[in-house]
Amino acid sequence: MSEKKTIGIAVLGMGNVGAEVVRIIEENAADLRARVGAPVELRGVAVRDLSRPRKIAQELITDDPAGLVARDDVDIVVELMGGIDPARELIRTALESGKSVVTANKALLAEYTGELATAAAQAKVDLYFEAAVAGAIPVVRPLMQSLAGDTVERVAGIVNGTTNFILSAMAETGAAYDETLAEAGRLGYAEADPTADVEGYDAAAKAAILASIAFHTRVTAADVYREGITHVTPDDLAAARKFDCTVKLLSICERVRGDDGSQRVSARVYPALIPLSHPLATVNGAFNAVVVEAENAGRLMFYGQGAGGAPTASAVLGDMVMAARNKVHGGRGPLESTYASLPIASIDEVPTRYYVSMRVADKPGVLSQVANEFSKRSVSIAAVRQEGAGDDARLIVVTHRAPDRAQSECVAALEDMDSVTTVSSVLRLEGTDD
Ligand SMILES: NC(=O)c1ccc[n+]([C@@H]2O[C@H](COP(=O)([O-])OP(=O)(O)OC[C@H]3O[C@@H](n4cnc5c(N)ncnc54)[C@H](O)[C@@H]3O)[C@@H](O)[C@H]2O)c1
Ligand SMILES: N[C@@H](CCO)C(=O)O
Ligand code: NA
């Protein structure tokens, strides 16, 4: 059998992930060649700083990513620079000139998948992005391909390692958020600017990508309701424990069905209590996990390393092999599927459960006043606990499911009550059936 044409690879960005991708391409050349059915060769690696020493032949290094993308002997562009610009333009140009693209860039995809997927479809090339959500964990491909014949109802996951590390450490040691964030930085989990992680932007970008695939609807980062973890306190974690729960930053993508048979998509990110018996409660440290619920498959769980150079590179390489096989043997990966075009549900209308902790005056009648604010808004209370006494009296209320707007209106009313000194904590409760 005659050997097929060599598949040329351009890697854009040689940071944590890019350096590992380059290493694996070079170390595994023989296996990759056998798996693809043709040699796979690095044509070049675009970097920002040419003077930095790198473990790669000098002639492969360039600081001209556009020039590298334009080369005739490049068949697949692997984008690992991150950020919107110039990644967006480079990927679009690559696709328009008939090159397949593999990217891990969730921030870009959460805004511009539509534009990029359209360019890929028009040029009949592939756009793959398994590494963009939950790093090494296969979740994009299972949703897009393995579950293509099922109806997904819900995708809920821990998809940010930094915040999961922080919340796990807070739960374990009782340490404060700031202290734990500093520790996450020292261990190399949190970046110098942790905003994207701790404010939930990274998890929201991933939720947008997951919701788009799961519900065949274009969902962008702006459609995702988002709260971060900066306000979570050791008290919250201790109180959660008393309700047999822990606190996790969840990315939730849900098909919300109305009484009239209508359907909407809810995509949301917030720290929430989940029962210790829930499978996501056992996901600790920097690990990620995603639970998918589909009409016929039932509940599926995907667990593993959602970040880090080598694990993320594993997902990138998987995509690269798929794209290379298609180049060699013909065929295409799945196209973007947005046929359902479901409307986006506002957080206000999504049924949620609340956990509200407040400091109150310790005197007769306060509990009934508090309960009255919930009942006025048709929010049913599931549990109440009083802690402390006198000046230190604290009430914790856990509600049943009701539209989020009604729940938040109850909290606003509590904040206005004379007998409530402060509402010290408000978190949602997820992972329960009622
Ligand atoms: N690190 C992870 O665990 C992880 C996991 C999943 C996805 N990702 C995604 O993978 C991508 C890369 O992440 P990373 O952690 O390797 O980031 P990084 O900051 O370590 O690496 C990015 C590299 O790209 C280079 N770069 C940036 N702009 C460039 C330009 N214009 N020209 C040439 N080089 C340029 C930078 O100099 C840097 O070396 C990002 O989109 C990130 O969101 C990372
Ligand atoms: N900053 C991300 C990296 C993976 O996207 C995390 O902490 O999970
Ligand atoms: Na993944």
UniProtKB/TrEMBL annotation:
Recorded GO MF terms: homoserine dehydrogenase activity; metal ion binding; NADP binding
Pfam family, one: Homoserine_dh
Listed PROSITE patterns: ACT, HOMOSER_DHGENASE
Binding site for L-homoserine: 191
Listed cofactors: a metal cation
Residue positions of the active site: 206 (proton donor)
UniProt catalytic activity: L-homoserine + NADP(+) = L-aspartate 4-semialdehyde + NADPH + H(+); L-homoserine + NAD(+) = L-aspartate 4-semialdehyde + NADH + H(+)
Enzyme Commission no: 1.1.1.3
Function according to Swiss-Prot or TrEMBL: Catalyzes the conversion of L-aspartate-beta-semialdehyde (L-Asa) to L-homoserine (L-Hse), the third step in the biosynthesis of threonine and methionine from aspartate.
Family: Belongs to the homoserine dehydrogenase family.
PANTHER family: HOMOSERINE DEHYDROGENASE (PTHR43331)
Name this protein carries in UniProt: Homoserine dehydrogenase
